[in-house]
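job 3f2a | input accepted
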Amino acid sequence: MTAAMLALIAGTIGLLGLVLSAMGVYGTLSYVVVLRTREVGIRMALGARKSEVLRLMLRQSGAPVLLGLIAGALVATGDSYILHRVIYGIGRLDWVSFAGVGAGFVMIALVASVIPARRAMGVEPAVALRSE
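job 3f2a | predicted structure (132 res):
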């Protein structure tokens, strides 16, 4: 096998891992927000504005994502120092890749939180209270 073929295989596996992790983040966050539909209905019934509820949902679902990004950046930094010695052509720290992946996961987290939260805010408070 040539080096180009091995690079293609490694890139494909990396891309597959990125897609699977993005799907996991999206699925988990949207599920957590959907579980809080009753809470959103109660808040709306008590007079909370939609912007306040949306901001609350984004803040509470964004905290685990930011913690995961910080932990992932630390692990990736350690891995890049190890791989720098093993694989030719890899720099010690690739901040562009770190920032790009981090920004991508933040965008996925925003979409995963906003879509179900807006759907939950559209539900009538009385229906949300009777849902259980």
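job 3f2a | Residues 21-130 form one domain.
job 3f2a | closed
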